[in-house]
Design goal:
elongated, alpha+beta, two-stranded antiparallel ribbon, about 30% strand, twelve-stranded mixed beta sheet, about 260 residues
């Protein structure tokens, strides 16, 4: 996961600051050849809880198994709903472990690692669209902590927030090349002068977009690590992350050019 951001080599000029959302559109002539798309998501098996204390000595990062939450199924359904009117959509199988095993595939572009983890569907497709975990410097409170994949972030003054540091890869099904992509996020409208004064918003405001994150109920901040969350609290976390994922898909899909 630490190296998955390297896959977007063709996007580096658009991703000068990894804490902000970015997209790279598919070339118009290439997009015209895409009729069928294989869709998958490999982000939903784990969530991180990053708790930032008053001092740097009072911090903790834990994680929990969320593979039973149906997150990837929900993402696949959301992508299918958005694309089915323009493309033939085929759910695809992908080996999640192999898709992020960069240590065993050193020197290989990350989109190739993801591509090689896909089981080709019985129905041939023109491209694969896969949601993958990435990493981003903490964009919430500028504490310089790295946030990976899906997670929960708690820090003084910022309450508790769910976030999604994830990339959509659009990969040519024949050549393994990355033909478009982008991070989950939201476009920023009507940015105020106050927003520009906040260090954690400055880069995002300048680019007109920010990585996907959303504040949730403050009472969830009672937890000090992942095991401390109650089942009722986890239900709220699940609802928050599912809503965030669904709402933040439009930004990269529109930027890539797959939806209007």
């Amino acid at each position: 996961m630490k190296k998955i951001i390297a896959a977007l080599g063709l996007l580096l000029t658009l991703a000068a600051c990894a804490s902000n959302s970015y997209v790279a559109p598919v070339a118009a002539d290439r997009k015209a050849t895409i009729k069928t798309i294989g869709v998958a998501s490999i982000v939903g098996d784990k969530m991180y809880f990053t708790r930032i204390g008053i001092t740097i000595f009072d911090t903790e990062r834990t994680s929990g198994d969320t593979s039973a939450w149906g997150i990837d199924e929900g993402v696949t359904q959301a992508l299918t709903a958005r694309l089915k009117d323009r493309y033939s959509i085929v759910p695809i199988a992908i080996d999640r472990t192999a898709a992020i095993n960069f240590e065993a595939n050193k020197g290989m572009a990350a989109q190739e690692v993801v591509y090689n983890a896909i089981t080709p569907p019985a129905t041939p497709v023109d491209a694969y669209l896969v949601l993958v975990p990435t990493e981003s410097r903490d964009f919430i409170s500028n504490s310089r902590f790295t946030l990976d994949g899906l997670g929960i972030f708690r820090s003084p003054g910022f309450g508790i927030q769910v976030y999604a540091a994830c990339d959509l890869y659009l990969i040519d099904a024949k050549t393994k090349t990355l033909i478009g992509g982008g991070q989950l996020g939201f476009a920023i409208d009507n940015v105020s002068a106050v927003d520009f004064l906040k260090p954690y918003n400055l880069g995002a405001a300048m680019r007109g977009a920010e990585l996907a994150h959303r504040r949730v109920e403050d009472k969830l901040a009672q937890a000090k690590d992942w095991p401390a969350f109650t089942p009722e609290q986890l239900d709220k976390v699940k609802a928050g992350i599912m809503s965030l994922l669904n709402d933040s898909l439009d930004y990269p899909l529109k930027g890539i050019g797959l939806v209007q």
